[in-house]
């Protein structure tokens, strides 16, 4: 008996006072977090058994004469399961659940399908909390769809190629062979990289399975599989044929630390980067005219944060619409040209104090757009200033050319001024140093003016190359020593042209893999043309593709809008080769390439059969299609961008597996707007003209409990493996769905402690329901109708039903409280379903926790007396309601807490299938209670809100009395409702004034609901009232007056209720039950 008492207490809701308020306001509470529920400050409302447990342990001891007649709960279900038990459950709820639904539904006609395409994690290193967030969200989505009858095919995958793996392999090779890391072409790199990726895949797969992620783990996709690589190259060939892909020489993002070109999506921009900025004076060509003698030389003032690019300066850009001022610096006897809007700022910063404004003109009036007038641009002229090779340019004449001070001592070259719409007055001087080898906008300005572009002086390692005119710069890294040396030259040798220098803090692009700064460098690459594709992409984003959250729409559009081209070639070894051959003819500096359908198609066939290693290991004649052999072609060494790998998975995986396109959902982190979402959309539009997905769902990133980014250096990294070992998998899954995942999600020990407590509450609630159903068998289905369908029965609680069999009556004899909880379950199911459909999983958990507290503190507490002490005809209808509650409750938690839900299902004595996943989704109350005409849900809940409000007010008075030690338990209390002005409350209470059952003629349903000895409804009190109270109803503000007194009856030694007319004797209900020879169920 002591053990049973502990079991009962373990189910007690720990939040006193929540029951009535929660039921009254459950539809308002959804917008609050569960932490709100856990710290509710509402007045303490304690049930009769809570009184006894807090005041006197002896009260819990039932009379031993009747202990064997009490039907206490019994179930093998545990409050917490072991790791071994959890793993055993996974075999059913994950492995069996996925395979069984696939086998049963795959060939069913008209079956609903759902496909969530798995964005491939990188096969590198151990999994972290971000992986858990991503994969568990996908799994919750898939489980919900399986539960609702969809065929789900989830093919997990991995991104296997790319720089991080190659760098790690190269570092190992460097240790063993003392080899250079960047640019290494050792053939063993690819084998080592493949082995490294495969080891990472096996390790990560093990963790994914441990988290309960269901999927086709026997056949995952890997971007290094030959069939995948071949499919990827088919997309490349298709885009090449449609002229979306071309080869060109352009400035591209180049990572010296990686030794390869990068795409915009592979960059990150740290908030703080310090550049060495300089204000440089570029001399404008003129002779010793009158203006020069009077005002000094004329200079264009240019600001740059990349002094190392001055070696490649080929123009100065201005804007036709900007006004420029020509000032006379009296202290230095020189003239300077600066944008008028920036004049004050520049002069203050550079220390120019005494100056005179000579003239101000718009750019179009001051400069000559000298795209073709200076000829030739790169021709050396005589250094004799008095010759006719140069002309005087007084400040009142339009200016057309200047000289680069850094190369003056080498040659005298006139360079042009060019109009550029990218020039603004936000920062700088309004004049922009233009180096087309090192800037995209610079390149376009020079190209638009048909000016030949000079050579690039920076090599693959980011060093000045052998063609650099200044020998002292050759071999220096341009971002480090090279940059400092250029500044030093200006300070020591060209100080006349250095106006000012300072450190400048700003955002600067970094290689997101090596975390080192990149540069822009002219080089020949393969590009995907995006100008046409991006306009179509934006239309689909605006009109067709669903976004959760909707803010992702503008984010994806912005990334696509910012790109006119996509550099898809990389100068690395571990990747899919671009199957193109090259050669030079007749000593021509221009290289021609072979990229026909026949030549590429032939290589694709070889790769599909042998893998991409074949390209790197075999000779050209073995790789070339027969018509092209022995013609001097050499295979290329470039590989495809890994975003092209993953960006074609919709084709290489989904379409290749026979899964219809577009798939339903892509679900990834918000960083994939610039990555996978974008590359997949663009390749799909190029190939098939439509997006590869219908909906994009994005989640935020992981932070610690203080909102800080997870970092090993900060010591705030929490490994999922440790959390699973301590709390179990379901707590990890609970955490994923507990917060709004569309923003950043915090993780920490305190969060998991609270979630662990919440999971225990869920398990205890389920444990009680399983326990009271131990002796329960569901009623048999009604027989099929012969001629007419069976007549619906309108419930008269606890009353007879003419024409109904005794068994049907036994299962259908529902109380008003039963009908209310059925209505609440219907509401709960609708709320949970809607939240799952909207991907609002945090709302699902809120609904679950709110309903858990409602059940534990109200209905399940209410029915304990019925289930423990009443007759069979009273217990069975109640058990049937509990069965329905448990069925819906278990299904509601199953997508998130899959192990807990499966554990509950396996402990159901009446289960029909091997796994819960085969049960389907919620059964409507109309279907479950098919022989009953249930009342309207909304009306029932509205009515019961008034009843619960009354209960809340009654318990306020009881609590006051308890604090004064007037009563020990609520069962000792008699309640007198003296006045009720609210007609709706009267209507709601009237059905509750009937007896609880034919075996219990003394107690009414109202007594049971209020959990007191007796409620005297609108009758004159027959005994002394100890406490009085009044309140105004929430529905219309009308008044209710009530009071409480001591119970007029004695405590029943069997059920504890104060309904016995003789002290120490059983009450009439218990007497009737005992007389029917009630036997304890066989457990």
TrEMBL record:
Organism of origin is Naegleria fowleri
Q: Which residues form the Methionyl/Valyl/Leucyl/Isoleucyl-tRNA synthetase anticodon-binding domain?
A: 818-975
Catalytic reactions on record: tRNA(Ile) + L-isoleucine + ATP = L-isoleucyl-tRNA(Ile) + AMP + diphosphate
EC identifiers of the protein:
6.1.1.5
Keyword check for rRNA-binding, yes or no.
no
Give the protein's recorded name.
Answer: isoleucine--tRNA ligase
- GO biological process terms, semicolon-separated: isoleucyl-tRNA aminoacylation; mitochondrial translation
Q: Which family does it belong to?
A: Belongs to the class-I aminoacyl-tRNA synthetase family.
- InterPro entries in UniProt: aa-tRNA-synth_I_CS, aa-tRNA-synth_Ia, Anticodon_Ile_BEm, Ile-tRNA-ligase, Ile-tRNA-ligase_type1, Ile-tRNA_ligase, M/V/L/I-tRNA-synth_anticd-bd, Rossmann-like_a/b/a_fold
Q: Name one Pfam family in it.
A: tRNA-synt_1
| Subcellular location field | Mitochondrion
**Which superkingdom is the protein from?**
Eukaryota
Per UniProt, which keywords does this protein have? Aminoacyl-tRNA synthetase, ATP-binding, Ligase, Nucleotide-binding, Protein biosynthesis
Ranges for the Aminoacyl-tRNA synthetase class Ia domain?
98-747
* Gene Ontology MF annotations: aminoacyl-tRNA deacylase activity; ATP binding; isoleucine-tRNA ligase activity; tRNA binding
NCBIfam families referenced in this protein's UniProt entry, alphabetically = ileS
Query: An example Gene Ontology cellular component term from the record?
Result: mitochondrion
């Amino acid at each position: 008996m002591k053990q049973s008492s502990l079991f009962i207490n373990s189910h007690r809701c720990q939040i006193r006072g929540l029951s009535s308020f929660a039921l009254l306001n459950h539809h308002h509470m959804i917008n609050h977090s569960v932490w709100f529920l856990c710290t509710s400050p509402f007045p303490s409302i304690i049930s009769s058994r809570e009184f006894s447990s807090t005041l006197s342990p002896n009260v819990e001891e039932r009379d031993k004469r009747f202990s064997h007649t009490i039907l206490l709960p019994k179930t093998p279900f545990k409050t917490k399961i072991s790791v071994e038990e959890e793993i055993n459950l996974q075999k059913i709820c994950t492995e069996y659940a996925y395979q069984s639904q696939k086998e049963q539904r795959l060939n069913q006609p008209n079956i609903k399908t759902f496909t969530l395409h798995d964005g491939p994690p990188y096969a590198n290193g151990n999994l972290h909390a971000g992986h858990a967030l991503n994969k568990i969200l996908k799994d919750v989505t898939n489980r919900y769809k399986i539960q609702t009858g969809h065929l789900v095919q989830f093919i997990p995958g991995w991104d296997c190629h790319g720089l991080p793996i190659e760098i790690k392999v190269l570092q190992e090779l460097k240790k063993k062979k003392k080899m250079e890391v960047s640019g290494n072409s050792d053939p063993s790199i690819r084998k080592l990289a493949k082995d490294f990726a495969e080891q990472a895949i096996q390790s990560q797969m093990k963790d994914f399975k441990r988290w309960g992620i269901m999927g086709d783990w026997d056949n995952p996709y890997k971007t290094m599989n030959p069939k995948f690589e071949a499919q990827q190259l088919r997309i490349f060939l298709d885009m090449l044929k449609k002229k979306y892909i071309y080869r060109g020489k352009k400035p591209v993002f180049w990572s010296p630390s990686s030794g390869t070109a990068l795409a915009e999506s592979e960059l990150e921009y740290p908030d703080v980067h310090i550049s060495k900025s300089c204000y440089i004076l570029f001399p404008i060509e003129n002779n010793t005219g009158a203006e020069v003698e009077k005002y000094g030389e004329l200079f264009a003032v240019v600001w740059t944060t990349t002094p190392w690019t001055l070696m490649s300066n080929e123009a100065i850009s201005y804007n036709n619409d900007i006004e420029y001022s020509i000032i006379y610096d009296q202290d230095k006897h020189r003239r300077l040209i600066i944008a008028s809007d920036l004049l004050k700022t520049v002069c203050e910063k550079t220390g120019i104090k005494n100056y005179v404004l000579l003239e101000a003109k718009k750019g179009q009036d001051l400069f000559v757009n000298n795209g073709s007038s200076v000829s030739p641009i790169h021709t050396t002229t005589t250094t004799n200033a008095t010759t006719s090779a140069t002309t005087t340019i007084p400040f009142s004449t339009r200016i057309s050319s200047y000289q680069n001070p850094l190369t003056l001592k080498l040659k005298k070259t006139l360079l042009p001024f060019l109009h550029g719409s990218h020039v603004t007055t936000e920062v700088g001087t309004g004049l922009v140093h233009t180096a087309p080898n090192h800037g995209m906008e610079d390149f376009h300005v020079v190209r638009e003016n048909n000016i030949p572009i000079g050579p690039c002086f920076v090599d693959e390692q980011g060093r000045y190359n052998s063609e650099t005119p200044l020998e002292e710069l050759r071999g220096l890294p341009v971002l480090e020593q090279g940059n400092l040396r250029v500044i030093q030259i200006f300070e020591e040798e060209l100080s006349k042209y250095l106006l000012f220098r300072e450190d400048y803090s700003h955002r600067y692009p970094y290689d997101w893999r090596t975390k080192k700064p990149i540069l822009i460098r002219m080089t020949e690459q393969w590009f995907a043309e995006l100008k046409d594709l991006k306009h179509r992409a934006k239309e689909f984003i605006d009109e067709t593709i669903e976004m959760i959250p909707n803010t992702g729409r503008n984010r994806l559009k912005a990334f696509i809008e910012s790109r006119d081209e996509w550099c898809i070639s990389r100068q690395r070894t571990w990747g899919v080769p671009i199957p193109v051959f090259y050669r030079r003819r007749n000593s021509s500096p221009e290289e021609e390439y072979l990229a026909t359908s026949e030549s590429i198609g032939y290589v694709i066939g070889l790769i599909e059969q042998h893998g991409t290693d074949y390209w790197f290991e075999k000779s050209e004649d073995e790789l070339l299609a027969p018509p092209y052999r022995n013609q001097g072609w050499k295979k290329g060494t470039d590989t495809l961008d890994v975003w092209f790998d993953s960006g074609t998975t919709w084709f290489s995986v989904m379409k290749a597996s026979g899964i219809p396109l577009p798939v339903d959902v892509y679900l990834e982190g918000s960083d994939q707007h610039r990555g996978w979402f974008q590359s997949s959309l663009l390749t799909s539009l190029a190939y098939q003209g439509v997006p590869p997905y219908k909906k994009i769902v994005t989640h935020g990133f992981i932070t610690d409990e203080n909102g800080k980014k997870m970092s090993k250096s900060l010591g705030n990294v929490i490994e999922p493996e440790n959390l699973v070992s301590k709390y179990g998998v379901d707590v990890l899954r609970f955490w994923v769905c507990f917060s709004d995942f569309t923003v950043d999600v915090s993780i920490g020990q305190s969060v998991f402690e609270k979630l662990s407590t919440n999971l225990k509450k869920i398990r205890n609630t389920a444990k009680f329901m399983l326990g009271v159903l131990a002796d329960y068998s569901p009623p048999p289905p009604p027989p099929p109708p012969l001629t007419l369908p069976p007549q619906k029965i309108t419930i008269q609680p606890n009353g007879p039903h003419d024409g109904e069999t005794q068994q049907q009556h036994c299962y259908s004899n529902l109380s008003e409280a039963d009908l209310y909880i059925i209505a609440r379950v219907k509401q709960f199911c609708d709320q949970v379903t809607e939240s799952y459909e909207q991907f609002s999983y945090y709302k699902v958990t809120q609904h679950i926790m709110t309903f858990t507290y409602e059940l534990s503190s109200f209905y399940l507490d209410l029915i304990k007396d019925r289930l423990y002490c009443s007759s069979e005809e009273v217990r069975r209808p109640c058990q049937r309601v509990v069965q329905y509650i448990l069925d819906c409750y278990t299904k509601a938690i199953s997508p998130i807490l899959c192990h807990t839900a499966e554990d509950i299902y396996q402990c159901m004595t009446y289960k029909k299938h091997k796994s819960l996943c085969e049960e389907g989704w919620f059964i409507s109350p109309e279907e479950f209670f098919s022989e009953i005409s249930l009342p309207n849900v909304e009306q029932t809940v509205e009515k019961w809100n008034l009843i619960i409000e009354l209960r809340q007010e009654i318990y306020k008075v009881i609590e006051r009395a308890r604090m004064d030690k007037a009563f020990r338990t609520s069962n000792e209390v008699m309640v007198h409702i003296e006045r009720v002005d609210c007609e709706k409350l009267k209507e709601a209470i009237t059905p509750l004034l009937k007896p609880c059952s034919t075996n219990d003629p003394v107690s009414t349903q109202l007594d049971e609901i209020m959990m007191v000895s007796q409620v005297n409804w609108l009758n004159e009190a027959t005994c002394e009232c100890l406490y009085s109270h009044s309140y105004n109803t929430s529905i219309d503000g009308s008044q209710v007056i009530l009071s409480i007194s001591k119970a007029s009856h004695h405590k029943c030694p069997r059920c504890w209720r104060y309904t016995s007319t003789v002290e120490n004797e059983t009450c009439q209900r218990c007497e009737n039950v005992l007389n029917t020879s009630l036997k304890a169920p066989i457990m």
